[in-house]
Known about the structure:
With 142 residues, chain A is an alpha+beta fold. Chain A is built from 1 helix and 10 strands; from the N terminus they run H-E-E-E-E-E-E-E-E-E-E. Chain B has helices at 2-17, 147-152; strands spanning 20-25, 28-32, 37-47, 52-65, 68-84, 87-97, 102-113, 116-126, 131-135, 141-145. The radius of gyration of chain B is 18 Å and the shape is globular. Chains A and B meet through strand 7, strand 9 and strand 10 of A and strand 1, strand 2 and strand 5 of B.
Amino acid sequence: MSKLNKNYIINFFVFVLLLFQAVIYYYNVNPSSQIINNKSMTVENFSSIVLGNSGLTKIGSEKLNKVNENNIYLQGKSYLENDDYKIYGYDITINLNEDISYSKKSVKIINSMGTLDAKGFKNKDSEGKIFFEGEVIFRSHD
Amino acid sequence: MIKYIYIFINLFFYSSLHSESIVKAGESLIWDSENKSYTAIGSVEFTNDIFYAFSEKMVAEYVEQNNKEVFTKVELFENVRIELKDEIFEGNYAIYTRDNNIIKLTGDVSIQSPTRLLKGYELIADIDNNKRILNSANEESLVEVLLENNASN
């Protein structure tokens, strides 16, 4: 084997090692940043106040997950309370940009007229409308 | 003894002041707080202390009185059936107004009681005065006053 070939092999071996180190560095750095991000997006036994079209609304849940800048997901037993209504349900998604909140799980709503039980809801705060799907029972105290 | 009478009177007034209306919807319900209304769709049942009603769709309007909201107008659409004591009213559309306590039905209207069945195109049931006005197809109005109940008043 000539001296030139030996140099080529050594250079190639060094290049592969450097490449391997770069790959290790890349995969070592990324997972750690992911963990930090995830930790900052999830809060347990959360409660806060958000400002929407219907004024200040107090929200709370067993676990808050920030999906992105505009969407938050209230995981587990959750609530939304303001002057107009109190919504008690499970797994509620809130779109802060469009002022919409919704859930496909059983929900109880209390307003100044009475109490409403439904299988799920979609609250369009900007329109002042709450849609309830499935069997709904509303008991009003006249 | 006086204590029990006092409790009984209090319970009576409390129950009469806190009457309850129940709305059941089979498919969906929309609460529109801007227009102050509830729209119920699919096998809708409405019950208050005066009557029971069934229809395919219901729109109930409300107003705020003394920091409370109360139903003032209830509209019923399609396959309307209203049960008021021993009477049954049926029609395609009905409207109940709380102010005058009157139910008005239109469409193929019928009024049924244990002793008679009458049909027409419009029925006005004045609950407070126990008066029923049925307009039939030949445009002759039948006015009926429930004398038996009035006599006891």
